[in-house]
Amino acid sequence: MMIISKGPKIKCKRCQKQYDIDPVDFDDADISSDERSMGYELQYTWQYMSNCVRCKNELTIIVEGYEYPVGAFNYEEFTYEGCIVIENPELEIKHIEEYEDDDIY
């Protein structure tokens, strides 16, 4: 299972106010899977949406992490709208003894 272990640092594109985003401020991950040659690839997508407290500019962050094969970090992708990244978030694989079928598929 993949988690956001450290949130991003951003600044508003409009007024330059800086923010440290806590991982708990992101929506729960949407998880999808796709069967490939070495088993399943899991895609985790988290979204953060807020407005700048200073200028009300809309701030959106989308974090995507891929696990393939299950249990191995594959890659990550970040999308920022209305803000400039200072520091990307950090993703981490949390190993679980056994995946429940309902948790993966």
TrEMBL record:
UniProt superkingdom: Bacteria
Protein's name according to its UniProt entry: Uncharacterized protein
The organism of origin for this protein: Chryseobacterium tagetis
Lineage: Bacteria, Pseudomonadati, Bacteroidota, Flavobacteriia, Flavobacteriales
